[in-house]
Design a protein that fits this description.
single chain, alpha+beta, 5 strands, globular, kinase
Length: 144
């Protein structure tokens, strides 16, 4: 969040954290994934609105939700938005290649987690990442 705040000092970023957030993860890759989600939330939402980051403890997983009040993502774009070189919505200020969400999904999947998106006019857009506290081995069982 510090990097996002430094790059967007005019924007309001809010963090809510509830629970214990310990696990076996690659912190550099997760920082990259969460940074991509935050950058997208800032880019696709009005400048006078906040971007919320909510960390939650959920049994054997930890979740991070990134929420913004931007316009909804079109329903027909939701199924392909994690594909490489795809953009759900064209944005004039965007200079990326359309790889940010693909990278997020790859990092989260490599950690044995999931990422999902919800988007509506009434509720805004939320990306939720769920990560198991322990990395998953090649046979699908928790690593020791």
């Amino acid at each position: 969040m510090e990097e996002l705040e430094a790059g967007h000092p005019e924007r309001k970023l809010r963090l809510t954290a509830q629970g214990r957030f310990q696990g076996e993860w690659d912190p550099d890759r997760l920082a990259q994934a969460f940074g991509n989600l935050g950058k997208n939330a800032l880019e696709y939402s009005p400048e006078d609105t906040a971007v919320d980051f909510v960390l939650r403890e959920e049994e054997d997983t930890v979740s991070l939700e990134v929420h913004n009040e931007g316009p909804p993502i079109p329903a027909e774009a939701l199924s392909s938005m994690f594909e490489p070189f795809q953009r759900a919505v064209e944005h004039p200020a965007s200079s990326g290649l359309g790889l940010g969400l693909f990278i997020v999904q790859q990092i989260v999947t490599a950690h044995g987690g999931t990422v999902e998106v919800r988007s509506s006019e009434a509720e805004g857009t939320s990306f939720t990442v769920r990560l198991p506290r322990r990395s998953v081995g090649s046979e699908g069982t928790p690593a020791k």
